[in-house]
Amino acid sequence: MGELRAALEKAGITLPSLRLDPLGLAREAPCPLVDLGRCPVDVAARLAAVLR
Predict the structure, then answer these.
(1) Three-state DSSP class for 52?
(2) Residues 33, 21 contacting (CB under 8 angstroms)
(3) C-alpha torsion sign, points 35, 40, 45, 49
(4) Integer CA distances (angstroms), 15 to 23, 35, 50, in order
(5) Tell me, what's the pLDDT at 46?
(6) Residue 10's closest CA among 45, 50, 42, 52?
(7) CA nearest neighbour of 43 among 8, 14, 19
(8) What is the pLDDT of residue 28?
(9) pTM (2 decimals)?
(10) Distance CA 35, CA 19 (A)
(11) With contact defined as beta carbons under 8 Å apart, do 11 and 50 qualify?
(12) pLDDT tens digits in sequence order for the chain, 52 residues long
């Protein structure tokens, strides 16, 4: 998650809700999931542009 946050930051993108999903960590056999969360429409558009 830290690497993703750093890469997004380098591209000028901040996902305010980026975090580890606590439910994935609470399982008997942990399965960590990164929750990208919600973001404003302009941030989603910039993210799409970077991925293209």
Answers:
(1) coil
(2) yes
(3) negative
(4) 20, 10, 14
(5) 92
(6) 50
(7) 14
(8) 84
(9) 0.73
(10) 5
(11) yes
(12) 899 999 999 999 999 999 998 888 887 887 889 999 999 999 999 999 999 9
Write the DSSP assignment of 4-49 as a string of letters: HHHHHHHTT---TT-EE-HHHHSSSS----EE-----HHHHHHHHH
Q: What pLDDT, on a 0 to 100 scale, did the predictor assign at position 17?
A: 92
What's the Cα-to-Cα distance from 5 to each of 44, 46, 48, rounded to whole Å?
15, 15, 16
Structure tokens at 36: 């990208």
Dig out the tokens for 7 from the structure: 């890469």
Could you tell me the two tokens for 8? 């997004």
